[in-house]
Write a structure and sequence with these properties.
The protein contains 3 helices and 8 strands. The protein is of the alpha+beta class and about 140 residues long. It has an 8-stranded mixed beta sheet with strand order 2-3-4-1-5-8-7-6. The chain binds zinc ion. Zinc ion binds near residues 6, 53 and 77.
């Protein structure tokens, strides 16, 4: 694994939270994106070389809606940047970690993503992400 790519924060209202985080970080969100397959609306902020991702549920069945019902707003996941997501998944399942999706899927911000089940990672939802390199 390379570095922490971003920290994901579950919020109830992304417009309000965009305003709040703009004030907090002193810079506006540089990107918003809805990932309908995941039931989330996302918004990204840069903090130096790090990123914060805000996530709002787009429907009641969204994992974000369920998370907020259970735990309230707050840190939802930590995402690590990886070079080769398939190899990382192989390595981590070999170490006994439980993956939520064995096959990487397309997430926000042009990334292939795999999530690890929090029950195998001390209660923290971990996201692996590999940048999708667009060939020209
Ligand atoms: Zn994320």
């Amino acid at each position: 694994m390379n570095k922490i790519e971003h920290i994901g924060i579950a919020v109830k209202n992304i417009e309000n939270s965009n305003e709040l985080f703009s004030k907090l970080l002193g810079a506006p969100s540089y990107k918003t994106e809805t990932v309908e397959s995941e039931g989330v609306k996302t918004s990204f902020f840069k903090v130096g070389s790090n990123k914060i991702e805000l996530l709002e549920a787009t429907n009641a069945d969204s994992p974000i809606a369920k998370f907020i019902d259970k735990k309230g707003e707050g840190i939802h996941h930590i995402a690590f940047d990886v070079e080769n997501i398939e190899e990382e998944v192989k390595r981590l399942t070999g170490e006994g970690f439980v993956v939520l999706n064995e096959i990487a899927k397309k997430g926000a911000d042009n990334k292939l993503v795999v999530f690890l089940h929090p029950k195998s990672t001390n209660g923290v939802l971990i996201e692996l992400c590999q940048e999708i390199i667009l060939k020209e």
